[in-house]
Amino acid sequence: MGPKTSATAPMSRTGWAGAWTLPNLITVVRLGCIPWFLWLLVSQENRAAAALLLGALGATDWVDGWIARRFDQISDVGKLLDPTADRILLVVALVAIADDGSIPMWFAVAVLVREILIGLVALALLVIGVRRIDVTWWGKTGTFALLWAVPCFLAGQSTIPAALAFEVGAWIFGIPGLVISWIAAWGYVPVARSALREREARS
Description:
This protein is mainly alpha-helical. It has eight helices and no strands. The protein is globular, with a radius of gyration of 18 Å.
């Protein structure tokens, strides 16, 4: 008899079977909305609309993960695509909003440095053939909080009637999100070391 598998543990789809799923479609749509966000903020100078769109894109980050788990649509493609989309969205939004002057520069730099470092390390590991390192719960939590904080900073500097409440909300989400994201980044270090040792053992 073969090894038993848990009936509740979802299998991760691979190849093309993992590409054509609803969560991945949502992620691709999120990426496609980035130019729209930039157009609203930079060309139209409409902070309120840009903030609302960015907030909606941040919310869908939770939606696609919930759909993947609830309807057994977890895939290898999604495990790579979703955090990549999160990183691209966060970096582009931070650069644009920092240039707009709607977010404290030190906060934007602290988030950007973390995202760029994680992205470069992940790319380097991929190039040398180390196995993919999945995003941890803490990493996802930190990113989710930041994806709420950043549009709140923008809305806080807009003409929205509740601008002050959004500004307060930005700090409520932002400080914990920043701390958690950096703690999560350090948590990837031993995982990366283990993956490197596995690669050396196979060599």
